[in-house]
Amino acid sequence: MKIIIVDDYKAMSKKAAIxxxxxxxxxxxxxxxxxxxxxxxxxxxxxVELHKEGIIDFSQVTTFNLDEYYDLSPDNTNSYHxxxxxxxxxxxxxxxxxxxxxxxxxEDIDKECESYDQKIIQxxxxxxxxxxxxxxxxxxxxxxxxxxxxxxxxxxxxxxxINDNSxxxxxxxxxxxxxxxxxxxxxxxxxxxxxxxxxxxxxxxxEKTVHGSITPKVPASVLQLHPNATLIIDKLAASKLKTLS
Length: 245
Ligand SMILES: N[C@@H]1[C@@H](O)[C@H](O)[C@@H](COP(=O)(O)O)O[C@@H]1O
What we know:
Layout: E1 2-6, H1 9-26, E2 31-34, H2 41-52, E3 62-65, E4 67-69, H3 80-87, E5 99-100, H4 109-122, E6 128-131, E7 153-156, H5 159-165, E8 178-181, H6 184-188, E9 192-197, H7 203-211, E10 229-234
The structure holds 2-amino-2-deoxy-6-O-phosphono-alpha-D-glucopyranose.
C-alpha cells in the first residue's frame, strides 16, 4: 500500500486528478471505477478543469460507478446517477453510453447485479478504481462483515452509514436502507486503486485500514492485499497513523 500524505483537501483532490489524468493520457480507452460522496467532488472539479484546458479527452473512457441507492430513481437528486451527471459527466466529453451505474430501481436485482459484473468483465476490467471510505471503514457500500469474495450485490446499510449520509437528505427517514454495490472482489480485481480520505472523521478508519489486521470488520483493510493500491490522505485523516506520531 502506497501512502501519500498531503496538506489538505485541495491538495488531495489535485494529486488524485493528476493520477487519473495520467491514466487516461497513457490509455485513452481506460476503464475507470468511480466513487461518490463528498470526498471525490474536488477531484471531479479538477478533472473538469483539466478537460477544459484540453489536457484530458474522455471520449474513449468507460466508467463504472461503485454503487447506487436501492429504490431511488435516477432523477432523484440524491441518487448517484444524479450526482455523477451533476458533478462530472455533464462537463466532460464522455459518451454517456459508456457510463455505467447500477440501476437502483431494477425489478430483478440478481439479474442487474450479474449483468453489472459481466459488463465490467466485457469492458476488460477496471484499470483504476477510485474510492472514498466510510467512517466505519466501508468501501463502496461494502459494510463491516462483508465477504471479501463478494461481487455486485444488494446490501443493507449500517446505521452509522445511514446517519452519516443523512446530511444529504431532508431527514434521516428519507435515506434508503439498502443499496446495490460492487463487491470487494470487483474492487480488488481493479488493476490499480486510489483511495482518498480527508478530515479527522476518517482518521480512525484510515488507521485501521493501514495498521489494523486484514478483516471483513474493516472492509478497506483488504486493500493491504492489493499490489497497486495508493492512499491519498490529508494530514487530518493521517493523524492517527503511527508514522506521524
Ligand atoms: N457509498 C459511498 C462511499 O463510496 C463513500 O466513500 C462514503 C464516504 O462518503 P464521504 O466522502 O461523503 O465521506 O459514502 C458513501 O457511503
